[in-house]
Each structure stands twice: as C-alpha cells, then as structure tokens.
Amino acid sequence: MIRITETNEGRSAPTITCDQCGKLIDEAKWGNCHWKTKDGNLTEDGKLYFTHKQCCAAFESADSSIMWHSTELTAFLRRLVHNLKADLSEDIGDRMLDQLP
Ligand SMILES: [Zn+2]
Fold first, then answer.
1. How many other β-carbons are positioned within 10 Å of the β-carbon of residue 34?
2. Are 22 and 58 in contact (CB under 8 A)?
3. How far is the CA of 90 from the centre of ligand 1 (A)?
4. Half-sphere exposure of 99 (CA within 13 A, CB side)
5. Does the residue 40 lie in any domain?
6. How far, in Å, is the centroid of ligand 1 from the Cα of 21?
7. How far is the CA of 33 from the centre of ligand 1 (A)?
8. Is residue 60 part of a domain?
9. Domains in the chain: how many in total?
10. Which residues surround ligand 1, an ion (CB under 5 A)?
C-alpha cells in the first residue's frame, strides 16, 4: 500500500509497503504492482496492491479465484508519471512533505 511513514529522521515520507509481508519496498526494482480483474473487467474500482518480487507468488496464489494482473513497480511508476504529466525535474531537496506545494 502507498502511505505516509515517518523516517528515522522524524520526517513524513510517502512510501510503498508490501501487501504480502508488510515491509517497506525500498527500491522500485524489487517491487511489483497488482490489480484484479474478473471476466476481463477491473474489480474494486482498480484498487492497487504492491508486493516485493519475492512475495509476488505467495500473494497471487493466496486466493485462486482472483485473476491478477501485474507489472514491475518501475514500469508502473513510469506510466503514472507520464499519465500525470508530472515534471520530475524540480529538486525538492530536504523539504518536508508538508512543505511541498
Ligand atoms: Zn514482501
């Protein structure tokens, strides 16, 4: 899940945790993004789930009635940034999350 967590420095930071083991996914290259479909249609309004790659098989096999689709977390983030037309060139430096515009 995507959520705000407190860092060791006491700051609030957006993070992604694994929906299988509950631990932080600290590098995008080690994560996957999942969503459910039924009869070719999205379910749960496209709700997203995240796992470590090593947790993926256990996560998807927990309920065999679900048709899972997934992509690598890095690819998902690239698509999200593209679809939001986000400008990632701005350096946010050390500003805290609540100081961002
Ligand atoms: Zn995990």
1. 20
2. no
3. 31
4. 7
5. yes
6. 4
7. 12
8. yes
9. 1
10. 18, 20-21, 52, 55
